[in-house]
Design goal:
The chain has 336 residues and is of the alpha+beta class. The chain folds into two domains: 2-264, Beta Polymerase, domain 2 (2-Layer Sandwich), CATH 3.30.460; 299-336. The protein is built from eight helices and seven strands. Helix 3 crosses helix 5 (150-183), helix 5 (150-183) packs parallel to helix 7 (232-295) and helix 6 runs antiparallel to helix 7. The longest helix has 64 residues, at 232-295. The protein is elongated.
């Protein structure tokens, strides 16, 4: 779906795609601006906007199309900023929620590509991104946003994307607290795979945030002509938010490492307890086994020697003993 917002200097109007034929980027005045949002666009829409209306390099189009490979965060293009002749190209990762749940596992990354021209901004994404929808609604209610230009709009998008990291970090912290409490509860074990999955997700999130921090830092330093120095103060504010997010991620990652160390320590302690019990049983039965092996139970007056079903009875005793021991050990948590 393609959404177009046109600012004529006074008001903001939502336009159809066909209206772009009369609003070429070269015909826009200093008081006008166009925002084209390509949300999961068709190949025809992509070709029309990025191939004809606002032509961009084929490598840019290739990077943008990787937004559709959202089944795995590793397949998305890493965040970056590049300057081309006449426009600026930015890729960042936003967070989307798969369901109505708010736990850490329900969030995943979505690629957002942004192309900035002199009076044009184009956003490209395959998934629904809350930050884009929020800024679109803000533009519909306030014409002053688009009045400041594409560089100001870019800062708003980045700021809203950073804000979406905060509930995710809170979800991770809550989940880690639950794991830590459950780990030391009697008879409770946490799968190591679950802890490693959280560690991996934190690493992916931290990598993307660090990339994004570098992007915002470059934008705040005024490296690019299409980002005015007047807007640099807003980018510095976004940079400060990212620094705090990185600090929280580092704290969460340290907590995961501490939980893993505690996991191995608790596991080792429980193993020692199990080995202690088994050693006691082995010590008790060792002399009994020695005595029975020396005498061989070869006594003349043993009533079981002449039982018709003695052999079957012996097997039943062996199976019953093994089964009882299995369930006892399992109930105690030794076989988890």
């Amino acid at each position: 779906m393609t959404s177009i917002r046109f600012h004529d200097g006074q008001t903001v109007t939502s336009l159809p795609v066909s209206a772009l034929a009369d609003l070429t980027p070269s015909s826009l005045t200093d008081t006008q601006m166009v925002w084209v949002d390509l949300a999961n666009p068709s190949p025809e829409e992509t070709s029309l906007i990025l191939g004809t209306w606002f032509p961009v390099h084929e490598l840019v189009q290739s990077d943008l199309r990787r937004a559709h490979q959202n089944s795995d965060d590793e397949r998305l293009h890493h965040p970056k900023v590049e300057e081309y002749e006449g426009y600026l190209f930015v890729i960042v990762h936003a967070l989307t929620q798969d369901s109505n749940q708010s736990d850490a596992e329900s969030f995943r990354s979505a690629q957002l590509g942004i192309v900035i021209g002199e009076r044009v901004i184009i956003t490209y994404h395959a998934d629904s991104i809350a930050a884009v929808e929020s800024v679109l609604r803000s533009c519909d209610t306030s014409s002053r946003i688009l009045k400041h230009g594409p560089d100001y709009l870019l800062h708003l998008l980045l700021d809203d994307i950073v804000d979406t990291f905060l509930p995710v970090l809170s979800a991770f912290e809550d989940e880690l607290d639950l794991i830590e409490e459950a780990m030391f509860a009697n008879g409770t074990t946490i799968p190591l795979r679950h802890i490693l999955q959280i560690k991996r997700r934190l690493q992916v999130l931290r990598r993307n945030v660090v990339y994004m921090r570098e992007i915002v830092n470059r934008l705040a330093r005024g490296e690019f002509e299409l980002v005015s120095l007047d807007e640099s103060v807003y980018y510095r504010n976004v940079y400060d938010h990212l620094v705090r997010v990185v600090d929280q991620l580092e704290a969460s990652r340290d907590l995961v490492m501490s939980i893993m160390e505690a996991y191995f320590s608790v596991t080792s302690n429980r193993l020692n307890q199990v080995m202690k019990v088994l050693t006691v049983f082995s010590t008790i039965f060792l002399p009994l086994t020695f005595i029975s092996s020396v005498y061989g139970m070869n006594f003349e007056f043993m009533p079981e020697l002449h039982w018709k079903y003695g052999y079957l009875y012996a097997w039943l005793v062996i199976i019953a003993t093994g089964t009882i021991m299995f369930f006892v050990f399992r109930r105690k948590g030794w076989l988890r």
